[in-house]
Design goal:
The protein is an alpha/beta fold and 280 residues long. The chain has a single domain (67-90, 102-279), classed as Rossmann fold, CATH 3.40.50.300. 57% of the residues lie in helices and 9% in strands. It has eleven helices and five strands, in the order H-H-H-H-E-H-E-H-H-E-H-E-H-H-E-H. The chain has a five-stranded parallel sheet, sandwiched between helices. Strand 3, helix 8 and strand 4 form a beta-alpha-beta unit. The longest helix is centred in the first third of the chain and has 30 residues, at 2-31. The N and C termini lie far apart (112 Å).
Length: 280
Amino acid sequence: MKTELTKTAASHQSGAALHAEAALRRDERWVAGEAAAPVVEREVPNAFDGIEAAFSRILAGVRKLTPEQAKRSRFESMIAPRMGAIGFPARYRVDVGAWNCAPQEATFQFCRGKFAEVGSIIALVGERGVGKTFIAAQLCRERIDLWLSYYERQPVDRPAKAPLRMGRYAKLTDLIATFKPLYADFGSIETEKLMLQREELCRESLLCIDELHECEDQRLKMRVLTDILDRRYSNRLDTLLISNETEQAFRQSIGDSALSRITEHGEIVTCAWESWRRGR
């Protein structure tokens, strides 16, 4: 064991002597004016270079959309699904680029101007197929667009006032089927749930109620419709009514209370232009 320790110590001393001798030679060359060997710096690869290059290749492969294509893509991916979510069937989930019926466009513009958050009630009446529901869909489409545009902005760039909700479309027969237990002469174990649903309906910025002519139970129709219209009128929220009746028949079937509301902050609009369905 003593011999091994002696050998190890000797080897360490020998290594130290070699290092000292090498250092002395470097000093001698420096004193003699010899230039020291240049230090070679190795370039360390930047990990972000590869990421940036890959991202550039991805961007190069993305097809740039024209403004018209971008608008169409936005409608199909963001607006049309929301039109379906608020009740519009697939055939009405379209974006009008240009109206091809002047009276229909004029009616749309009239409704848009009349709905000014005062609880207006407008009734579109006339024969089937003239596009009354289509007008309702475009009014809600515009509100969805405004709603999306607001939340697409950065918070600091948003207007002080948030846009109204997106609206809702429903047939009167569906509303009656849903809320009948609240207005019938018998109770329901789901009364509280139905009251919450009715409250939610009466908070929508624009409620479009279609096919007022289809309800056979006139007494129940008056109960449901009058109550919903009164609640929305009190909340200063706009309502659009749609019926295939003539104006005279509509006035007789709507009831005095609703008719009074329409007279105060709305209007009955007769859609008398040619039916689309007849022309096909």
